[in-house]
Amino acid sequence: MPEKNDLMEKVISLCKRRGFIFPGSEIYGGLANSWDYGPLGHQLKQNIKTLWWKFFVTSREDMVPMDTAIIMNPRVWEASGHLQNFSDALVECKVCHKRFRADHLLEAKGIVPRYAKEELQDLDQINCPECAGDLTAPKNFNLMFKTAFGINDATALDVYLRPETAGGMFVNFKNILNVTRKRLPFGIAQVGKCFRNEITPGNFIFRTREFEIGEFEYFIKPGEWEKVFEMWLGEIKRWWQDAMKINMDNLVWHEIPETERAHYSKRTVDIEYKYPFGVKELHGIAYRTDFDLSRHEKVSGQDLHYTDPETNEKFLPHVIEPTFGIDRMLLVALLEAYHEEEVDNEVRVVMKFPKYLAPIQVAVLPLSKKDELSGPAKELAADLRKNFVVDYDETQSIGKRYRRQDEVGTPYCVTMDFDSLEDKKVTVRDRDTMVQERVEIVELTNYLKEKFNF
Ligand code: GAP
Fold first, then answer.
1. Which of 29, 67, 426, 432 sits a CA distance of 20 to 30 A from 53?
2. 272-286 pLDDT, tens digit each
3. Which CATH superfamily includes the segment(s) 360-452?
4. Which CATH architecture has domain 4-80+148-336?
5. Are 364 and 427 in contact (CB under 8 A)?
């Protein structure tokens, strides 16, 4: 395996070379820290989202899905506090005018930032990391992207690209209650794009200005929060262990102390990951009390109370909110999958994704390009496409083709040779063990389905 420092570079290079992720707007010189998901990256992201959706939403009777607007009435952000508080402390170098997040500069010097973040202390010990110049005092920088809604300059409304998906679910709480007749506890889930004008984006897709979140608001009776929080922590563990199949030693469960928690949160756990560039947040779970519904009730003037059908008691539900950064999960999937192995005195790079996450599931590789073989091989590929994501490749030696498929994590390569025309069998090679098995063509779909656990 590569050294930790090399791992990031190797993964980024593989992503670009094989079409997982490209630098954004590249032919125009790029746009700093923006990334485009290519054919394999898009499929991998889709597979992660589908797995997440099945795990946390459709396999449960207590969850309902939503897909809400990215641009919402700006009063939503007034109620949630984003207009007032969704900011980071920014400092600027007085000499080179580069801008930095004050807390990141402190952390880089091993100083634990003392909160409130608007009044970070110890900054006098720090100079510009680029040119050693003096820094300005920190000032609050709101991370929301502002834009104009409407075509008339005079009347256009200042609106914001959503910085999280949660707001859309809170403002629809009553709608969902009315149409689904759900009783507590239940959750509303969605996956979607979010936008934050980050001061220091970086580390590939770890921190970007446009990214996807999968999150849910789980509404509960106030007295039940501790039990439900534990239940979701357990589910999150199961997600990483059984669904994403990562090495659990790479996760750090960080209980956020009261001094660093939002004032309304009674418990927050950040699930951190040991990235090659340090231990940093992967995603989180927070108990938010009734802060969100009470704020939306106050600012909108609408009654958002819930009536318990058994006791007729009227109250504002409390909320537990697990949130997952989709792009960070994808980064973790890439880092966990990357393996280098020595095979026949050569380095074999193999992406050992869980098989059901792999962007290409099956590759069909005829041993010759001659029509006699490529015809039936193409027919076989077309047939397999009814059930699997299939690649067809007939160029270069079979060894090279295996390596190409290993490098993108294809779990099964199906090789058709001239014997196949006689015995109606193909050779199936397993990505991880490299063991080859001869399988009847008529049995192939079932054989592969079993392997993928469909
Ligand atoms: N509603 C709660 C919420 O938005 P958050 O911790 O601010 O919580 C949720 O964001 C998750 O979104 C993070 O845990 C992280 O996985 C992801 N995330 C946040 N900012 C990001 C960024 N700039 N780039 C990529 N992912 C980001």
1. 432
2. 999 999 999 999 999
3. Anticodon-binding domain (3.40.50.800)
4. 2-Layer Sandwich (3.30)
5. no
